[in-house]
Predict the 3D structure of the following.
Amino acid sequence: MTEQPEFGAVLEACKQYPRADTGKKDFGYGTAGFRMRADLLPSVIFAVGLLASIRSRKCKGSAIGVMITASHNPAEDNGVKIVDPEGEMMSEEWEWFATWLANARDPEGLVIFARDTRPSGEALVEALKAALVATGTEYIDYGIATTPQLHYLVRATNTLGSDREYGEVSIEGYYKKLSAAFMNTMHIEYANQAGPVYVDCANGVGAPQLKELLKYLPEDKFKAIIVNDKIDQPDRLNKRCGADWVKTQQRAPENFNGKDWDRWTSLDGDADRIVYYFCEEGSIFRLLDGDRIATLAADYIGELVHKSGLGEQIKLGVVQTAYANGASTKYIEKTLKLKVEFTPTGVKHLHHAAARQDIGVYFEANGHGTVLFSERALKALRKHQPQSTAQLNALTTLRALSEMINQTVGDALSDLLLVEVILSHKQWTVKEWLSTYADLPNKLMKVNVMDRNKFITVPGSAERRLERPPAIQPRMDEIIAKYQDARCFVRASGTEDAVRIYGEATHAMEVEEMLAQVQEYVIHISGTHIEPWVF
Ligand code: G16
């Protein structure tokens, strides 16, 4: 039962969470919510509590999610992501809050929240609860969970009792849904995992949650060996391990002891990203990142649509960002013959673009992504009458995949099952997967500049070109023109106090040379700093 908020109570509670002194810097909503050093966050979390309460009331009392996590950032950071009623990232349009406040009629609100394993999360939850209590908002604390589990819970809560129920409203319900769907995909006799998959859990929340999930899956169908699960040693979170580290360093994490060709994966600190990798003979490291998962999924799901006899009715589309390796885009367009759309970085952008497709496959190169099935596609899957055993098999797998793949956000655990299903069905090892196309040599760098907010991309360029500082793009164009099939861009991170520089070209040496020059110019134009940060 919720009580009507009293303005006095809100003001009183607010005094307990004074704004940290951040000098001239303001807090800003970044790529995936607010993110900064944990000690600066309490007042921000309190404000998010107020906002979530308002948003829930605006959405006629639907549950709104609040996830306390700083995902791939180091252990001393924390952050907060807000989840909308369908389980997707919060809408970018905030303007109507003002309108709603003026017209509010007082529906009750419900906010559900969870946190990752960072110790700072506990105190931040208190700040959040204070705001919810002060505003008389009902809440449910789901304790420690992955970000995608919270997204699942939000949609499950809001669809309960409707004709589009998403699943049981509990974390157990999440495991049940994923495992049941996984077992339904394994109806094909020859579908078997080619040896276990090793999962580096970044010493974060993915470790306990994957251990739970494994209890629902028979070992003869799915075997995972968990590595880097030290959640009781917070300093080790994302340190020399995890999806972000592996992707940016392009090497295996701590405690990697894989034999050549063993199949390895890394999750990030809140388990919404996953990358695969392995070593070839001679310890040559090979990364199978988000682009590879996108191409694998688009290829296989496209094949299933065709085999089920629905090729004319259901079209697939792929969504990528500027970080996608050029070779992956070429493969999707030329070999798979599918359309690719580009959006700015951030799942909130990719998700909306993918939702416009019948089946939309979206992945960022860093391993964040999923496959969305539209209502139209789901209806076709439900109604279709297969004309042969081959059609029936393809249809059964497709229906199961639409249940197993998280429809709310990129989900490392669901994506892990997805890749394992596809490799089992195709009877592929990582070798066949890698051989589909050859990546262009590439590199991603991070530079700590004085003020990253000065780096502004050209609107509509999907972050491929800079508008400001004015001198930089012409200089970069000159540098890039010296190299064969080269591409390079600079953009401000929305989760860390840095600018990112990405480059690719035909030869690895040229990538190094090109990025060194661009980096030098970026530093020359803006200066560097090493201070702890806020937005
Ligand atoms: C978040 C976003 C991702 C984005 C990443 C890096 O991931 O959800 O979409 O790719 O940040 O963003 P940026 O380059 O702006 O720092 P996560 O896993 O850290 O929440």
About this structure: The chain has four domains: 7-167, 184-288, 290-411, 442-526. The chain has 17 helices and 19 strands. Residues 31-32, 71-72, 268, 272-273, 345-347, 364, 366, 368, 493-496, 500 surround 1,6-di-O-phosphono-alpha-D-glucopyranose (CB under 6 Å). The first strand starts at residue 34 and ends at 37.
